[in-house]
Amino acid sequence: MDSRRRAPVIGPKVRQVGFVTPNADSPGEGVMEKEAGNLTTNSPTPVTIAPTRPVIEIPHSLKADPVAVPSPSHRRGNEVDIPSAPTASYNPNDSVLDGSSLPSSKGGSTINDVYGSLVSESVAESSPLGRPTGSTVGAFAERVKQKTSDSAIGSAVIDGGVASGKPGKGSKANNRGIPALSSSDAKSSEAPADGSKPLKERTSKAERRAKQEADRAAKLAGKGTGGGAGGDPNAQTKNSKGKKDNAPEKKSVQAPEKKGSDKSSENQKKKEVPAPRLQFDDKERVAKSKRRSLVEQTETKNRVELFRHLPQFVYGTQLPSLEAKFFQDDAMHPHPAVYQVGLQYLTGDIVGGNARCVAMLMALRSMIIDYETPPEKTLVRDLVTRTNNHVNFLITCRPLSISMGNAIRLLKAKIAKLDPSLPEAEAKASLIADIDTFMLEKIVFADKEIVKHAVTKIRDGDVVLTHGYSSVVEMILVRAKEMGKKFRVVVIDSRPKLEGRRLLRSLLSKDIHCTYTHTNAVPYIMQEVTRVFLGAASVLANGTVYARVGTACVAMVAHSCGVPVMICCETYKFHERVQLDSITSNELGDPDALVKVAGRKESALEGWADNEHLQLLNLTYDATPADYVSMIITELGMVPPTSVPVILREYRKEPAV
Amino acid sequence: MIAANPIELAVGNMVRRVLHIIREEDVSLTSSAIPGVSVESDDDESDSKSSYSAAAIAAANRSALRAPSLHNLLESIPDPVKTPEAPAASVGDSDSKSRSGDRNSVSWKLKHNVIEGITELLQDLDDYHTHVAEQALEHIHQNEVILTLGRSRSLLKFLLEAKKKRSFQVVVAEGAPRYQGHTLAKELAEKGLQTTVITDSAVFAMISRVNMVIIGAHAVMANGGVLAPVGMHMVALAARRHAVPFVVLAGVHKLCPQYPHKPYTLLNDMKSPAEVVEFGELSECFAAGTGDHTTYVVNPTFDYIPPDLVSIFITDTGGHNPSYVYRLIAEYYSPEDYFLQ
User: Fold this and answer.
1) Which ipTM value was assigned to this complex?
2) CATH number of B119-332
3) What is the per-residue pLDDT across A365-375, written as a single tens digit (0 to 9) for each?
């Protein structure tokens, strides 16, 4: 039926990715909706123009052809591509930018999806970026766009964006993102290959395509693409990203089987927009993206299958290229403060949810202080674009933590709410005040409150166990010592980061009696322990605690020994998404960090990358089930894990600080 | 020997096995000649009385009873036989053989049987890897993901045996502080098994995608509890949480008739803290404080896994439930030997 429908409408350029129902009501959509919902919100990117640019570049989608085929072969192709996809998404500038603008339907959609998802994944381990991008500003832009003929494009973009939802569900996401924008070529090429589902997409895509072409032409005439090139790609990327998130409205449901197409869509996207993503099978694109990307990253050779939805780069390759490009005068270049923070993330100088969030906010604050609205642009939109650019850059350095993602979302919401008639200086001052208030209220004062509550739980004679390094737990223990309580601490450390040593050092300097050991010995030492205090990167809506890897093991053993487990977490770190295990969303660290064993000259794992049967996995986070947690100590009080969604709903209704 | 390294329970086990063999053989011999047994034994005793010292005579008197003391039984057998070590046993064999001429026929038969039993025991010790590995195909199936921690020889053979017919993946946790997981992963990957190395802290994260956990045990206690390298208890808890079968590979020689009363303290071996923290690091940390308190660095070697966390034991005699272990113990050990001096 699809073919019949599309016959009159569609041109050869229209490419369908995934399956799209005419009214975008395909069952896949439901899933996509969910995913989009995950992304939250419709985070349409404020940039309006984005879609056109990518559209122009779509024609290259020749590559997409082979990839577009929805058949299993296509999928296989995707599988191959996928590793690169994740990588691509991580190039913040490129990935975000390109991803959003990736219209290439075929692979595009998948790429977009993967892209988007990756970005979201990295952003805050849960699409915070996708969301922040969208939030109110995005929605606003979205609405504006919808009214114009861009809507078709927008939806396309959105589809792509939406796809980003959950990379894990990969194909689905990809399909979504791409279909809309995918170049007509891709579409056409894909169309035949796709099954009935794609046919549906094609139909809608064809319509959108027609609109897009018209818009594109108009836009090209209207704006100088050259001048806005810097901003545009970014904007577009953001736009597409946002659109992706908003895809639900029009989204063409990409069949989940489009996994393969993800890759192709990524390829597609690359062509349309400065392609930052590295696609291994597309040498041309790889080269292109390398030329354009701000950061050079090479993917690791041996990737763990289970984690193909997460990007993984060879660490250490990013720094040289970052340094080299520092002095390039590029419109896309980030503000020096942001650059510095990015480098600090990259090298691991700044770790920890609070520290990273504060550093980022301070950097964005200086960026805003130095910001000047360029002519012919509104402060609101341009600033959001600028912020997105910078955030993308930070993502390249290191995926965003959930705390950072939430902060960005709030910041963007604040920007979006600015009164357009305000003069620039006032607007900037108000934003800076907002940032300061956020940091003060949500982090500094919140920590003080948490400490106040938590020290009441430490009594004389207690043996307190903690894992890794958490700034809040350190404050609690130091405060308890100052209050004169007699207790001792057990510090558990885990490889490869060995963050516990940092805590050990600071506790010893306060003369707290400490015991130090590694994660394996936890059941042994748990017999002596009376309390467990743990920090968290985030607490999710189903009560799952998302924290440094090893926390789940400690909580599990404590639970089996009947020791109460207390999580100390500020409310700004809470997040609406849900997660059941540690695989669906995580951050992959440098696998080479596992090779080196302290105190030994050689390791048995030297040269592991040469052996295709051997993979190293270095997870950064893990998800602790809610039933292991006795209570969560927040600045609002001590609550059970089941209260987290209540707090999210009641206290975070508005993005207002 | 046992006093030298109490945690090596296999030593005690072997002693007990030998003792058990001796007792068994003696019981079977004495029971096979019931009508004339008392007469014969008396004869033996009288013979031996003439050749041995007074102490031996007293022992011989005791041996007239149905439950002869071990000392008595083995009087005529040279000491080396008593030690469980393989080379010593073989020496003992030859010794006893050389002296067989001096014994009378019944003692000779006893010794002969005992020697046979010990030889069998030695063979079992050498072969148990193979017997355990033979059962691999029953348990590992196509496209499974197996999780393990550290390294175990029987595990290595087990997995390689299964690899011959089935293709599956292995996730190996490092096994701090010895990091033997690295060695195992390298060996498996070289043989062509898809292996992934993870840190011990990531076990809970990965176990949701794992089909089975297989480990090698250091010792199996009388209640079915397992002494394993440190970290296994955590793996066992995580496996139970995710309903993943927890399989323990153990040769019968690892079966120990003792009950673990306080396993973490009594059946453990504390190693040097240097394996956990380098001296330089720790001294830096100390420098930060005034040093009022001592800082402990804990480095236990073994973990105790309670029997309810274990799904099955795979031994060279087949698969067994933890609740069946006590029967195996009754089969291989005599109750009198449970407490060795």
Assistant:
1) 0.74
2) 3.40.50.10470
3) 998 888 887 77
